[in-house]
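<purpose> Linking amino acid order to shape
<body> The protein record starts here
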Amino acid sequence: MDTIALNFNYQNRWSYPIDIVAGVDAISSFPDVMKQVGAQRAMVLCGPGTSRSGIVERVQAALGEQCVGVYTGVGFNGPGGHHVPKEIREETAALAHEWQPDVLIGLGGGRADSTARALSAMIAKESGGEMPVVAVPTTISCAEISPGATRASSSSPRAFLIIDGRALATTPVRILQSTVFSQLRVAAECICAPTHNPIGDALALRGISELVKYAPMLADRKPEVLVAAKLAACLASLARFHSVTSQGVSTAVCHQAGGLYDLSHGEVHGIMFPHMLRFNLEVTADRQALIAEAMGIDISGMTDEQAGLAAAAKATEICKSFNLPTRLRDVGVPQDAMERIATATLAEERALATNPKPVTTAAPLVKMLQEAW
């Protein structure tokens, strides 16, 4: 019997201080959200593509005079999408000083949300209190729900996530499909984490099951399906708050490879996800059997190791069905880059420290990357 879960101590500090509003036209709920966060002056932050999608106009219509300004300069945020360039921090800070918002709205992908949170932190240094952030995502990945994005403390501002089906439907199908793998990775790392527990397992496994169910339907971009898929993705990220230390080699390698070679966040996770499963198979086979079953694989008659390999194969099969890349060479990573990526990962990634299989040298990372190339 697995006794790790039996020694699990639930602590409220792991809970997530975020409210989620979901629906085909969830943006129309902005007046109520503004009341709940106690705000009257909203500053919207998004990228150039999102600014041309029609979503900004919907947000402005819902907010009315409460929208005090729109910044459309959100761009590439560096390795893993976490670092917000200095020039963008300075531009947004100057506009915030002029517009005097009391709530920030990150509209778009993870870069918009991280830019809004970076601005909130900068404002906090001046005023002593962080400004609430409302995220309106346009991808399936959930950067807006992470331990770094939502901090459970009495001084943290209330956070809101508005999942709007019509907004998600403006995103290219390739991005919707590829970002499914970002969340499959989050769920799998939670399940395989040394600190896994029944609460995290329940959220992560249901997330995997629902993501695999809805992923083939994303191509039609039906708003109700997109909302369901995004909520499934949220389950994976919410599981992280209960698995405590739940990042691993896939998160670590993809952050560095993505930053070094400007790779699509979802696509690099789609490439590396099956390799991560095989990399950790010898120490997490029983956990990977759960992942395989959640993916809809009939594991009866299989050993745990066989089930884990079947899960990896199914992930590659899904990638191919979407015409997404399955090798690093397909996204322009040169063959001689493996040592560089592995060295950067070993040196800079805290996520590697919580991988279930200890990694102390670059050699095993190089081998995994070569297999992925």
Q: What stands out?
A: The two ends are 38 Å apart (CA to CA). Residues 47 and 72 are 5 Å apart (CA to CA). The longest helix spans residues 265-294.
